[in-house]
Amino acid sequence: MVLRGYVPTSEETLQTLAALRLQSLNSDFSTHAPFPRLEELFPPHVLHARLPPPPHRAPSKCRGARLRAGLLAGGLWGQALAKQRAERDQRLRGRLREEGASTMAAIVEKWKLLQGMGRPEAMAAYVALVREWPGFGSTLFDVDLQAVRPRLGVVQGQSWQWATLTPLSLQSPVGSGPQHLWLGIGAKAVSLYKPGEPEPLDSFCYGRISSFGASDSSTFRLSVEDRDMLFETSQVDEIAQLLNTYLASASAQRLTRPQEPPTSPPASEPTVVPQGLCPVAGPWRPPVGSSHS
Fold first, then answer.
1. Helices 119-131 & 11-26, crossing angle to 10 degrees?
2. Per-residue pLDDT tens for 205-219?
3. For the purposes of burial, counting CB atoms within 10 Å of the CB of 188, is it exposed (0-12), middle (13-18) or buried (19 or more)?
4. CATH number of 203's domain
5. What is the CATH number of the domain that holds 35?
């Protein structure tokens, strides 16, 4: 998850994590130790972000120039453009190699400082660094927030009254308009993150979630109090299954206390999340596939 960029932190910390991984794999620094490839130690997207963006070619306003470009596209002009692109790609590859070498040198210097640290200590230090991110232990899903819509979710007997769905215009903590986000499913809450940002844009305790489910094969609906949030994602089933897992665990803890048996809603109604299911703070184990490192 670190290598895929799902643990937002500084480059300095990412280099320290890479050094700790080398210490765990190879023990103390040695010139004879096998070196993994840089992309197995450090997030590649960080290096690519250092490269200059591709040049933006402004459209020509001269009709004659456009005509000449069209006539020459398959001739000398096209060959010149291809040569320019090849030279630019070669420069970018060279720059990427330089950045990679510089980053690996910084990682090795940090590795040398870890001399004498045993494998268990290196692993513990690695996890301690990753745990500094508040979202540690959550499973992160790439989603596109498509809509935030008002709803009336007050239960009247056994009937649900839904507000009319409106165009995407409702103000919300995460803003309006389609947005690419991380949906973090954790043991205590569901959170929304802007990719790369350590703090969540919004976080919902399970007791605030009214219902959830799939609107279709690529749209996931999450109802929180007076809002419906619609996400486009290719992992609808995975999100629903993980939410069900956490809710079942929270329900089991809740049912250990004496209470009146809940009344099940009709099968035709949306899945309603029982209130008061915020897990009690304490040690927990993240599920397989979560973003612990």
1. 160
2. 888 888 899 888 899
3. middle
4. 2.30.29.30
5. 1.20.80.10
